[in-house]
Give the backbone structure.
Amino acid sequence: MPRRATEDSLATRLIVSIASIGFIVLFLLMPLITVFSQALAQGFDAALTALEEPDAWYAIKLTLFTAAIAVPLNAVFGIAASWAIAKFDFWGKGFLVTLIDLPFSVSPVISGLVYVLIFGMAGWFGPWLRDHDIKIIFALPGIVLATMFVTFPFVARELIPLMEDQGREEEEAAVSLGASGFSTFWRVTLPNIKWGLLYGVLLCNARAMGEFGAVSVVSGHIRGQTDTMPLQVEVLYNDYQFVGAFAVASVLALLALVTLTLKSFLEWRYADEIAATHRH
Amino acid sequence: MSLIVDKVTKRFDRFAALNDVSFTAPKGAFVALLGPSGSGKTTLLRILGGLEFADTGRVSYENEDWLAKPARDRRAGFVFQHYALFRHMTVEKNIAFGLEVRPRKIRPGRAEIARRVKELLSLVQLDDLGRRYPSQLSGGQRQRVALARALAIEPRMLLLDEPFGALDAKVRKDLRHWLRSLHERLGLMTIFVTHDQEEALELADLVAVMNQGRIEQIAPPQELRDKPATPFVADFLGQGGEREAAVIPLRPRGR
């Protein structure tokens, strides 16, 4: 084999390879393996029994339910926001872009606290909500709201650069060919962004299921009522129920792995099409 | 006169892109808008296509108030400088687009659309490439797909923005002749933007020389050469083969 000009010596290559593989194993693979091995420390049946525990089972359902509401809504809002930002010029656009990033820059705990201050008993709307018998804080609506706030930027962040890069010409072409606004969006804009959208939705979903800080503040930790999976893991761990804690953690990790596998599969299956929407 | 542009003005912020532009063109004319970059020629074309809105002024085409019609109702076949082909659709789907988005009442049937697409593919000499994606085509092929797509809607006028700008010299010459003969066959009012005076003089029946948002002179090529109305026209046409340095962006942008 001819040597390439950019090729380094064997020693350098070995050191760099070992360093990176070692890093990946130590910081990414080991924790994942630990989660599963701890869950199965007392056998598969023990782990399964821990999951069948009503509170644990409820936490799993609550997490999936929360994600099922928050993710589709954030996908819609994310598309709307990036469509407006990438395809139109208006006053205050820069401010809007900054605002979209807010959930990323603010600590999740503060995000949760903000909702407590607005909707909690002592908050602005607290008395009104109490009088009308609407529960937001320490209840499902609060958990959904907090999750949505924290995961809002994922879809928009993914789509804005993609849409800006694609420009407005295809939409203009569609309109000049007689397409209505809806037709243009449905037939031209959406197909062009669908892979970016999918990626954003998967990331958003992973984070929505895993969110701890913000949800922890608004949920009030009511077992079997407002404890999502991450919160349940903490509760069980603090109770020294290690098998239970790691069993729930394993389910959470599995959901994340399924998400990643799905993404890789789709990227592999539609590689040509993905390349086509990114090239000119 | 078939096309009457009357005192059209357009400003972007404080910069006047078009300043009181007026001209007329007869039915089926082949018009070139010629000028250096920033002279307002693309803005004028986009206003005719309904992609940009004039601040003041009127345009009448075939006795209709042209500016009152939204872009989608004008049936103005617009060919973009960078083609703006739908990248996720095959060539066939691109060409069929204008027919498929028609309201149900006036939409041709599937078989009819397929027949028209086939016809257009052969008109632009791309018979075997219907199943390809735009990214799998050369520049000249993309240009012809863009043209076929615009022709599919049976346009009332054809608007071309720097149609040969991004092509190499050989392909440019071929396409030029082909476009001229296509125009003669279809008899369609065609307006194209160019900064290449040779291209404008060779192709068009009428050349509008533009500078700083105004039309300096509009006349047939011979008259422009013989009797330039302003020093700018004389100077711009007198440049011989010299052209404005072509700065072709790698990716198409909004305008």
